Amino acid sequence: MTEHISILKVRYAETDQMGVVHHGNYAQYLEIARIEWLEKIGISYKSMEKNGIMLPVYEMNFKFKKSAFFDDNLKIHTSLRKTPDVKIIFDYKIYNQEDELLTTASTILVFMDAKTKRPMRCPEYVLEKLEISA
Predict the structure, then answer these.
(1) Which residues cross the membrane (predicted)?
(2) pTM > 0.90
(3) What is the pLDDT of residues 61-110, one digit of tens each?
């Protein structure tokens, strides 16, 4: 499945007194990368929500290998693990500007009907976009 690379610059407010990115910021980094990945294959997260489909995070895992620092340019490689069903699973690798692997991560999100708040199967148009981009 297609991979997308997002570039993010670490802001001072995202670091602690040692200049190291606080671990709590990584969830936002993954969200930015995931939304860009969806946009790359032609899916607007905003329009999904307008159409009554939500994608809450069910599970999030990180392995922190090296620290990211203030002013680093992070490259977040985002890929889909498998064809989605009720769940969509993303894998991430975060590198710094020296191409050192800093963090690996994964997220599991669940397709949910906004009205019923119940899980649902991946919409057909999402599956079609995935086939086109493969």
Answers:
(1) none
(2) yes
(3) 999 999 999 999 999 999 999 999 999 999 999 999 999 999 999 999 99
Architecture of domain 3-133: Roll (3.10)
Cα atoms in the 13 Å half-sphere on the side-chain side of 75: 11
Angle, vertex CA 115, rays to CA 120 and CA 42, nearest 5 = 60
Rounded Cα distance, 108 and 87, in Å: 6
Which residue has tokens 């200049």? 19
Look at residues 71, 60, 51, 54 and name the one whose alpha carbon lies nearest to residue 104. Answer: 60
- Given the DSSP bridges, would you call strands 53-54 and 57-64 parallel, antiparallel or unpaired? unpaired
Instruction: Tell me how many degrees the CA angle 21-26-27 measures, rounded to the nearest 5.
Output: 150
- The answer to whether 122 and 84 are in contact (CB under 8 A) is yes
What values do phi and psi take at 42, rounded to 5?
95, 25
36 Cβ contact partners less than 8 Å away, ≥ 6 residues apart: 4, 6, 78
In angstroms, what CA-CA distances link 24 with 15, 30, 39, 106, 132? 10, 11, 24, 15, 35
